[in-house]
Inverse folding.
């Protein structure tokens, strides 16, 4: 499967990119970056560093620095650390970004691989909305959009009502759901059922010293956040679960509904069923243990 991951790496983004590199069904043809867990230039640097570490020669196209209509943005440093990778701060600049913007790259690749390309968006939806605006054919040219975002049947994580990726650009998300491509939404409804614990990271690092060890090390910061906010003993495999949904849809229980996003007010970022919108497929349940085991087995195959 030809895949582009639109990402804001980010600790769980790094896990998802490692998973994609290890999955035999996935041909990762590029990463596009967006603000979110970090500022966008940090996202791009981290993305290029990860691809280099994974031995992948795929381009990184940098995208939106800010949500639609915003002039400033505060990254989620308290969740992902000051540079996006927990306590790690000396992340080298490897290579350069692709000359196209993320939206231009998405449009170009969707035309080139018409009907074949899957886009997995694991950050705010700004780049996807930009690509849809840039090329009205974009939604029809891609095979599928798989989104990590939203909390349709459960509470949010950034507010009681909203999940972080949708909250960070509610207008972009609402624009995507107004005229969506073939879309699967992988929200907190399922990603909080895929908890990855300290013992899982240790087991992974024992089998994959370099990549598994790196993920275990950067995740310490993330695990501490989960413990501090909710007493949880593990972190959700949010972004990896979305990448797994690209190739393993039968692991999910899916319902069809239209979606609307609250774009202002105290419930900004809430994702609600809306009968008058086009249908998207929303994951309501998941084989959580299956996702955790698949993630470990695949990533453990990396050096
Ligand atoms: C999502 O928000 C980010 O912090 C994570 O990387 C993930 O994409 C989870 O709500
Ligand atoms: Ca992310």
């Amino acid at each position: 499967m030809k895949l582009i991951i639109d990402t804001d790496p980010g600790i769980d983004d790094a896990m998802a990119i490692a998973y994609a590199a290890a999955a035999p069904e996935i041909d990762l043809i590029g990463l596009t970056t967006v603000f979110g867990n970090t500022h966008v230039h940090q996202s791009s640097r981290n993305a290029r560093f990860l691809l280099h570490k994974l031995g992948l020669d795929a381009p990184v196209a940098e995208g939106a620095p800010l949500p639609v209509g915003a002039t400033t943005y505060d990254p989620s440093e308290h969740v992902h650390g000051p540079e996006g990778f927990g306590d790690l701060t000396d992340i080298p600049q490897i290579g350069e970004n692709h000359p196209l913007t993320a939206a231009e790259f998405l449009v170009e690749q969707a035309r080139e691989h018409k009907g074949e390309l899957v886009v997995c968006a694991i950050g705010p939806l700004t780049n996807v909305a930009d690509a849809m605006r840039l090329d009205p054919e974009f939604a029809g040219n891609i095979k599928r959009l798989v989104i990590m975002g939203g909390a349709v049947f459960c509470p949010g994580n950034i507010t009681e009502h909203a999940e972080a990726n949708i909250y960070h650009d509610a207008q972009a998300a609402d624009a995507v759901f107004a005229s969506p491509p073939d879309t699967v939404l992988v929200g907190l409804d399922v990603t909080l059922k895929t908890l990855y614990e300290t013992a899982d990271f240790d087991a992974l690092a024992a089998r994959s010293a370099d990549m598994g060890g790196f993920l275990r090390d950067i995740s310490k910061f993330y695990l501490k956040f989960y413990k501090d906010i909710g007493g949880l003993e593990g972190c959700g495999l949010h972004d990896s679960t979305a990448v797994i949904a690209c190739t393993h849809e039968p692991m999910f229980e899916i319902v069809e509904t239209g979606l609307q996003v609250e774009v202002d007010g105290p419930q900004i970022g809430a994702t609600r069923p809306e009968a008058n919108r086009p249908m998207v497929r929303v994951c309501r349940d998941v084989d959580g243990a299956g996702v955790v085991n698949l993630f470990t087995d695949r990533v453990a195959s990396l050096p």
